[in-house]
Amino acid sequence: DDEDLNLLDxxxxxxERPAPVILPVLAIVGRPNVGKSTLVNRIIGRREAVVEDKPxxxxxxxxxxxxxxxxxFTLVDTGGWEVDVAGMDAKVAEQAEIAIEExxxxxxxxxxxxxxxxxxxxVVKLLRRxxxxxxxxxxxxxxxxxxxxxxxxxxxxxxxxxxxxxxxxRGTGDLLEAAMNVLPRESAHGTxxxxxxxxxxxVGRPNVGKSxxxNKVAGSSRVVVDETAGTTRxxxxxxxxxxxxxxxxxxxxxxxxxxxxxxxADFYASLRTQAAIEKSEVAVVLVDSSGPLTEQDVRVIQxxxxxxxxxxxxYNKWDLMDEDRRRYLERSIERDLVQIQWAPRVNLSALTGxxxxxxxxxxxTALASWETRIPTGKxxxxxxxxxxxxxxxxxxxxxxxxxxxxQVSSRPPRFVIFASGFLEPQYRRYIERxxxxxxxxxxxxxxxxxxxxx
Length: 454
Ligand code: GDP
Ligand code: GDP
What we know:
alpha/beta, globular, GTP-bd
C-alpha cells in the first residue's frame, strides 16, 4: 500500500501524515506567584489558563498543545497547584520534580523582583540532577531598568537569565527562541520501538484499583511499600511478564508512589495520566464498577481517544457487584460511552484476581486493530458497495460523490476520503460505523477526514 500512497502524492493527493510522533514536552516550573500561568497564557495566546492573584486556583487542564515559530510541542503548566503554607517548599519541590521528570526541556521561572529564594535553589538542584535542558526566565522585568535584577540570577548557575515580562510580553520571544533551541523535535519518551515490548499505560482516577491491579498482574511476590515521595526512586517503567510475554507498563512510579493522598492530588494525577498515555501504545482505563461512571472516568477515556491510542476499559471491583450496582453502571455506560462502544470491556477484580487473565487478550485485540492497514483496493470496493446501498442524501439539488479513499496511516488508522462535495457529519458517522462493522477496529480510535475536490 506504500505504492498507493506514492501514486496519490504524485497526483497531488494528500500529504501522507507521518507516523504519529510524540510531541516534545516543555514544562514551566517555578514557585507559586512567579508568573507561570501568565507566561503560559502568553505562549498559547489564549486566556485558557486561569490566573488569579491568590495561589491555590484549581484547574483541570494541565497541558496544552502549543506552537511557536512553526514548532509544535506540549506545554505543561504547573501553575495553580494547591500549596498549603506549611511545608510549602517541600511541596513545590515535589511538584517540580514530577513536571521535570515528564519534560523534555524546562523553563524555570524566577521572580526577578524578589530574587532567588531557598525554594528556587531547591528546584535548581532538581534541575541539575535531571540533566534536562533548562532555560532560566527572570520574570516581572517589566522595564529595562529592572534588567539589573535579572542579572542577579546568574548566581543560580543556570546560565543566562532571560529578562521577561510575562504580563506585558516583553522578552518572551527571546525566551521561547532559547527554549526551542534546547527542546528536542520529538519527545524522548515517545520513540517507538517496534521490536521492543508493548507499552501499556494503566490509568484511571484515584482509588479505582490501579496499584492493586499492577500488583496482581506483576505477581504476588512483589511487595510494595508505601513510601514517602522522593525518598526512593522507583523505576518509571516496569517490565511485567504476562502469559510469557513481556509488557512494558509505563510510568508506574506514579501509581506506586500513591501521590493521590496528598494535596493537589488531582493535579498530579492528571499530569501523570497525560504523560503515561502519551508514552503508551495501548491504555487500560480502570474504572470502579461499584458505582456509576464518573465525569472523571469519561474524561480519562476521552484523553486516550484524543491521543489516538488503543483502548481497553477494565471494570474493576467486580467482586462487589450486585443487581443495583449493575443497573447503575450499565445505565451510565449507555449514557456516557455510546461513542466508544468499540472499546473492549473486561470485568475483573484486582482484589481476587478474577478475570485478570482476560486483560492480555483484550490488549492484543486492541493493538492488532490499532495497527491494521486496509489495502486501498479493498477499502474502495467497500466504499463502492456502501455508497450504492446507501448514497449520500441529495441537498439543494446536489449529491456529493465519493471519489476515492485511502488509509494514510495506522497506529491508529487514519483515512482520507476524497469527495466531490462536503459530507454531512451524519454520513461520516455512517461510514465510520460501517468501517467498524466490516473491518473490526475493536479497541482503536479511527480518524476519517474528507477532502473536497472540485
Ligand atoms: P503562578 O502562580 O506562577 O502561575 O503565577 P501567576 O501567573 O498566577 O502570576 C502571579 C501574579 O504575578 C499575578 O498577579 C500576575 O498578574 C503577576 N505577574 C505575572 N507576570 C508578571 C509580570 O511579568 N510582571 C508583573 N508586574 N506581574 C506579573
Ligand atoms: P489506585 O489509587 O487506583 O492505585 O487504587 P488502589 O489500588 O490503591 O485501590 C484503592 C482501594 O480499592 C484499596 O483499598 C483497594 O484495596 C481497593 N480495591 C482495589 N481493587 C479492588 C477490587 O477489585 N475489589 C475490591 N473490593 N476492592 C478493591
